[in-house]
Amino acid sequence: MSSNTIYIFILFCLSCTTVAAQNNELKADCIRFNQLNTAIRDGKIKKPEAKTQFQNLMIALKAHSNQINDTNEWVFPVQGYNYRAAGGIAGNGYADRSYTYFDGNKHLAHPAHDLFITDRNQDCIDDKTHQPVNILAVADGVVIACSNEWEINSTLRGGRYIWIYHPRQNILTYYAHNRELFVTPGDVVKKGDKIAEMGRTGYNAYKKRSPTHLHFSAYHLIDNLPVAYNCYADLVKTYKR
Ligand SMILES: [Zn+2]
After folding, report:
1. Distance CA 202, CA 176 (A)
2. How many domains does the chain have?
3. Which residues make up the environment of ion ligand 1, defined by Cβ < 5 Å?
4. Residue 148 sits in which domain range?
5. How far is the CA of 130 from the centre of ligand 1 (A)?
6. Which end of the chain is more exposed for a tag (fewer CB within 10 A), N or C?
7. What is the tens place of the pLDDT at every residue in 154-200?
């Protein structure tokens, strides 16, 4: 080996080690975030302490996710559907008054869009395609929290849910009521990756009166704290004629 080859080889090994270390740190951040998110959801942590921990974890997540290059050109999160699947008229199913993430499972309002499929018999199989409906990551990101715990008598409103952090856009996205998840905290996902299949899990979503849907939310990170926003325009933009 020439000295040049050896030098390049050493540089290559160093950069691999750095990427591997960053991936390990990112995974550890995500596991910690998932624990914090569960504690907030269940009201097991005081709000000021929860906010401080949330901010510190967001700073760490940002530092360890250099390799993720998400853009704000999303794909629609429900495969085979478009913005017209959103409940209400022109996105007015979204309501964030009196909502705060830190209220957890007891939160008020509906800072989300419910995206409905055609499923008359409520078996989570699309009446048109006769297939389960894939839930897709709207943009590149890393999965920071999930829950697979839901059972029929559970009072958890989100059911089987997923949270994704998108570092370039500085946002979080949330996907609730799934029947099955295909990711765990720490997984790096690409735009359009299948992350779940649509379901009816969740305290209200399971009830007969609720048509089968994805509950989808987006949050800006302001001061490293989550602030829900109405992303209807982003959902409309995904529609390609
Ligand atoms: Zn909803």
Report:
1. 8
2. 1
3. 112, 114, 215
4. 1-241
5. 24
6. C
7. 999 999 999 999 999 999 999 999 999 999 999 999 999 999 999 99
